[in-house]
Amino acid sequence: CGQQDEAARAYMTLADEALLRHRYVDAEELYGKAIGQLGDDDAAGLARARGGRGRVRYRLQRFHEALEDLRAARALSESLGDDRAVLDFFLEEATTLDWLQGFAASAAVVEQAKPLVARAGDPKLAARFLMATGRTQFRKGLIAECSATLSDAVAEARRLDDHECTTISLLLLALAGCADSHRNCRPGIG
Known about the structure:
Blueprint: H1 4-20, H2 24-37, H3 43-59, H4 63-80, H5 83-99, H6 103-113, H7 116-120, H8 123-139, H9 143-159, H10 163-184
């Protein structure tokens, strides 16, 4: 009916709700429809929709498409000077690269994100950055460092009631504990 702005907002709202409910196939489709309704001049809307679609695509094992969307969303957010969104998309990109077992590339993205943590001023993103840093340290075999970083991430995520960050940090912390125990095992014990 020629009301593309209203349609795009509706698709985005529905996509965000589907994402929260872990209905990733629905969310991907809805973000795609939102993108189709947005004009090239709506950088903020495109960043949000491309970022949302990228966020669900790596969960659907569509890693390379996710990276394309997340990088496009980050570029749009950089052009808008939106440090919070840039940091968010960096962290999602780092996770995608980690899932691809591109551990060095993931670590490089986490390092790129570091200066944005203070500027973004978002405690939940700061907790996610701690989690990403701890994951990077774990991948590098820096068990003591990652244990301390992940413990901080757990404490902060719990304080913020961020269940996903808490759960992932605890899982990584458990793996770090297992790795540390295994390294210190003597033959014939445990």
